[in-house]
User: Fold this.
Amino acid sequence: MLFHPMDFLIFIAFGLSLWAQFRVKGTFARFADTAASSGMTGAEAARRMLDANGLSHIPVEHVPGMLTDHYDPLSKVVRLSDRVYFENSISAISVACHEVGHAIQHKAAYPMLVARHYIFPVVNLTSGVAPLLLLAGIFMGLSGLTLLGIIFFSVAVTFQLITLPVEFNASSRAKRLMTEMGFINGAAEQAGVSKVLNAAALTYVAAALVSLLELLKFIMIFRSEE
Assistant:
């Protein structure tokens, strides 16, 4: 089956995903031109927040690129991209503190982050095989392969769904601490931080929606073959 009724919804969700990616870049660029009143760069804000939360052993490193920021739980290091590391904008400190939020989650053994760490090796194994199994099962009429592909694909979808509370919680921690520690001041700066982090969160929501709809499509195809 080349086309399926679910494809229309998947197409809309994919469009939402593309829009979310453009929006996060646009929002970042907008508030990258707005200096934070604290005057701190993203690297300075990350360092201070880590130290204040008993994480002075975690380094803050510069990594080239645009929005390549991340917390590496294996190496226990916060890595910040060019504009986030060096600049003192609302966007820079928002993204930097969000990544520190993940480091704080790691220290606190935040349950959803722990679950994501445990499932990650399984996702690496199943995500590449799932499409092959699904295609082979559907086009060759082998329901067993289709079912196995669905099971493997569902692991990847589960990972994406688990990622949502992890990202929202990291942003929530970041916003609270940024206010408490004086990194941002006033309603305007708080609103700017929320817009930057909410735009980033939307990309995860859109990606999870696309994957969930695709999983439902494959389940419907499998049931129609029974």
Q: What stands out?
A: The radius of gyration is 20 Å. The mean pLDDT is 93. The longest strand covers residues 77-80. The first helix runs from residue 6 to 32.
